[in-house]
Design a protein that fits this description.
mainly alpha, electron transfer activity, Cytochrome Bc1 Complex, Chain D, domain 2, Ubiquinol-cytochrome c reductase cytochrome c subunit, 105 residues
Amino acid sequence: MSFRIRGAAAALFIAVLAVPLPALADEDGAELFRSTCADCHGAKGDQRALGQSRPIATLDAATITETLIARRAAPRTMQDRVKAALTDDEVKALADYVSSLGGGS
């Protein structure tokens, strides 16, 4: 491998390392929330989904994670089936994002 190619590869590697991982997780959580939750829970997580749930933005990340995993294990509704498709990393990103919206810290 030539010096020029090695230098470019090293620069690319350093650039990738410079991207803060939590920022990527925040973006992933925000996008997941927008695409799977916001229609029912509101853009800020402050609405009661279908008039039944409490506002999820008031929950902490641990409670959100526990709830998503429990619903994933035993889906009962269409929303539960959506939750069942989430990976562990997506659950974490979503829980972290939602808890950052309100009082759940």
